[in-house]
DNA sequence: CTGTTAGCGCATTCAG
DNA sequence: CTGAATGCGCTAACAG
């Protein structure tokens, strides 16, 4: 059945040329007689030869792999970033080797060690919080490193993201301008989501500057989910029914909040304002589209991949790309 | 800055031992004096040595990579499968190299060619529809191959999934038992989603056997989404307001249908039955949980990875694992 | 336009 | 318990 796999040398022999000639044909480099090219291609087809990229990479020190580290795949935001990365990588023919950290910096350290062992051409890591060991390894690797999502951090090499603190501030300004005064906050477990916390801080800061503050806040002990948003809003309103707008840590939580309102007979915006973060499809297709902030997740992934491939040797000094965000008016706040 | 990367030989020299000894220490094989082990480990730490897995794989012909091909990351179902795969791979220390086909069999052919070039220990492909070339390559590779999602297909090696036709049949039986008689179907673009079509066929078959049939059906021309479900149900009801239950191609579409009902003032179940497929979190956290069928997507991924690692050489004849499905009663049908 | 020589970094023999 | 020789499959550098 599975005989010894076919190698360059097998093809070369059969085609009556040297190995390097086959190699050149396959890579389309160097001057080549059209005749030999065709002959070699025919043999390649015929034998069903599959090149061994491991050997190629080892010999040329030019890798076709890109290491990617993401915190999770449960939150739809990260698959969207991955989609962007894939789109950005596509033209170059490079493949992503992915790992998941489960929001654990120690796991990230191990993961990034493993990924670096494949000698990737570049690393794309989601998040900017690392253990000292991870940071050192990434820096010392000498390859290009993109850190994604948050642009308020010092880059190892390239940072692509938005200002989460700025988003929190914009949320406060927007809602104050719309006339809301009695603010509440409903969040999920922050211990691993530094960006949610930054948005919270931005929100509070701007509220304070406007002489306001949160009249109530509640954090779910679970990760963000529609269910958590629904349950947490319910609890919060049970103790503090007098708030007029609730800012949620993200859209998943906010959609849950909208569902609670439907159940409880509260009209969004009219009886209670609800505001999210991310601009997910689900929020925008609610009977009343969710008021929220759109983060450009796909763009973040694509830009990072493109930028990195554009210059494959790491430049001096870092670069930060701010992909910005937009307020989606919606109909819930 | 980035000097020549440190190799085994550098470590060996510094530790005053041979390369192979360092190699053994790192892999934890063979008899080793505790003293040398500690000394080598110290040098490894000190130099920040990162093993080159490419070279290791080339030398040993034992790969630490697993190729994974998925149709898309936009549909939350596939990230969940990926999560399962990662979980199943975790213990073995293998890394997934991922590619996306965008539901295009030709793209899959190219992708699988590229993935095989990394000499993976195994391939996990989502979907069982392949071009002849792809099938031949997977078969000839000699490595283990898992095809995921659908269990009604002849396996190349291992198939892990559920019966989509069976799910369609179960849907019909369940809804007939609940007293529904005037059935409608709302779907998305099937041309690339053979499994949705299989469910549809199972549904129609069992309806026919019960002397019933679809009184109306409508397919959106776009891919599945909440928005498409909402718009398509709206159109369908405009022409056929007399249906008493609508079966959707999946939960995304069905949740959109529920949103339409909210807007139109139709009470789910009471005025119109709605039934989905997948059992996504979003459907279950609606004010009235969606009636649907739970597919075990995470399990499919995890089982596939585990099964494949359990026996890394491809056995004779194929195997099919049916992960089943369950009806979620819900409150919408 | 094509071939020869050498080596990428590691692991598998087989000796000691 | 440790080491020396050899080769994995490919490509860079230099001939011719």
Which helices and strands occur, and which strands form pairs?
The structure is a homodimer of 333-residue chains.
Chain A: H1 8-15, H2 19-27, H3 34-47, H4 53-60, E1 65-70, H5 77-90, E2 95-100, H6 105-116, E3 122-126, H7 132-141, E4 144-150, E5 158-162, H8 164-177, E6 183-187, H9 194-209, E7 214-219, H10 226-239, E8 245-248, H11 251-264, E9 273-275, H12 281-284, E10 292-295, H13 297-310, E11 319-322, E12 325-328
Parallel strand pairs in A: 1-2, 1-3, 3-4, 4-5, 5-11, 6-7, 6-8, 8-9
Antiparallel strand pairs in A: 10-12
Chain A binds a DNA duplex (16 and 16 nucleotides) through residues 7-9, 17-21, 23-24, 27, 30-33, 36, 51-62.
Task: Produce a short descriptive summary.
The structure is a homodimer of 333-residue chains. With 333 residues, chain A is an alpha/beta fold. Helix content of chain A is 45%, strand content 18%.
């Amino acid at each position: 059945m599975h005989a010894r796999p076919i190698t360059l040398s097998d093809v070369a022999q059969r085609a009556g040329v040297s190995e390097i000639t086959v190699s050149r044909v396959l890579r389309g480099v160097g001057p080549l007689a059209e005749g030999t090219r065709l002959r070699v291609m025919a043999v390649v087809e015929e034998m069903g030869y599959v090149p061994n990229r491991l050997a190629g990479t080892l010999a040329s020190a030019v890798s076709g792999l890109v290491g990617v580290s993401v915190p999770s795949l449960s939150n739809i935001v990260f698959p969207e970033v991955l989609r962007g990365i894939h789109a950005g990588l596509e033209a170059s023919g490079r493949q992503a080797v992915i790992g998941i950290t489960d929001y654990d910096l120690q796991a990230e350290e191990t993961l990034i060690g493993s990924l670096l062992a494949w000698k990737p051409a570049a690393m794309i890591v989601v998040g900017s919080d690392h253990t000292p060991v991870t940071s050192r390894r990434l820096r010392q690797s000498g390859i290009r490193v993109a850190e994604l999502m948050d642009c308020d951090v010092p880059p190892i090499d390239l940072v692509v993201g938005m200002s989460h603190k700025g988003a929190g501030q914009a949320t406060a300004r927007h809602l104050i301008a719309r006339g809301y005064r009695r603010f509440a906050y409903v969040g999920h477990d922050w211990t691993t989501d530094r960006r949610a916390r930054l948005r919270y801080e931005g929100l509070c800061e701007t509220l304070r500057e406007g002489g306001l503050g949160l009249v109530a806040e509640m954090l779910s002990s679970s990760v963000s989910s529609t269910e958590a948003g629904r349950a947490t809003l319910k609890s919060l309103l049970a103790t503090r029914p007098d708030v007029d707008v609730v800012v949620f840590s993200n859209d998943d939580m906010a959609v849950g909040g909208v569902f609670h309102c439907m159940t409880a007979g509260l009209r969004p915006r009219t009886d209670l304002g609800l505001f999210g973060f991310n601009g997910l499809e689900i929020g925008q297709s609610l009977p009343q589209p969710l008021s929220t902030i759109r983060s450009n997740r796909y763009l973040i992934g694509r830009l990072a991949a493109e930028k990195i491939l554009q210059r494959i040797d790491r430049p001096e000094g870092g670069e930060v790309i701010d992909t910005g965000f937009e307020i989606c008016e919606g109909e819930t706040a």
